[in-house]
Amino acid sequence: MADFKELDPLLHSQLRLAIMSLLMSVESAEFVYIKEKTGATAGNLSVQLDKLATAGYIGVSKEFKGKKPLTTCSITKRGIEAFEKYVESLKTYFKN
């Protein structure tokens, strides 16, 4: 029987994994863009971004663009390492 590596429970959520995958491919992304790409509700996305930020996997910057709030997210070095480890662990499930 193969040795399966434990999957990071924080990244094993469909929405959090989608957010991390998206942020791996861009320098940063605005909240609205992430919301559109993931199909998440604003409330759920906010909760999941907060969980990822608390873990140190992403950075969240909040500012104003004119009078509108602008939230921008980017993946951190720790987040990149966690994502890459998750992908490598996932691969152990596909080996014979």
Q: Summarize model confidence as the mean pLDDT.
A: 93
Per the CATH scheme, the topology name is Arc Repressor Mutant, subunit A
Using DSSP, what is the number of strands? 3
**Bulk shape:** elongated
Rg, Cα atoms, Å:
15 Å
Catalogue the unreliable spans: none
By secondary-structure content and strand pairing, the structural class works out as alpha+beta
- Helicity, in percent? 40-55%
Spatial order of the strands in the main sheet? 1-3-2
Structurally, how many domains make up the residues? 1
- What is the N-to-C order of secondary-structure elements (H for helix, E for strand)? HEHHEEH
- Straight-line distance between termini: 8 Å
Largest sheet descriptor: 3 strands, antiparallel
CATH architecture: Orthogonal Bundle
How much of the sequence lies in strands comes to: 15-25%
The H-level CATH homologous superfamily, spelled out, is Winged helix-like DNA-binding domain superfamily/Winged helix DNA-binding domain
Helical stretch count? 4
- CATH class value: Mainly Alpha
Domain Winged helix DNA-binding: 15-93
Organism: Fulvivirga lutea
Protein name: Transcriptional regulator
InterPro entries: WH-like_DNA-bd_sf, WH_DNA-bd_dom, WH_DNA-bd_sf
What's a concise summary of this model?
This protein has helices at residues 14-24, 31-38, 42-54, 77-91, and strands at residues 29-30, 58-65, 68-75. The protein has 96 residues and is of the alpha+beta class. The protein has one domain: Winged helix-like DNA-binding domain superfamily/Winged helix DNA-binding domain (Arc Repressor Mutant, subunit A, Orthogonal Bundle).
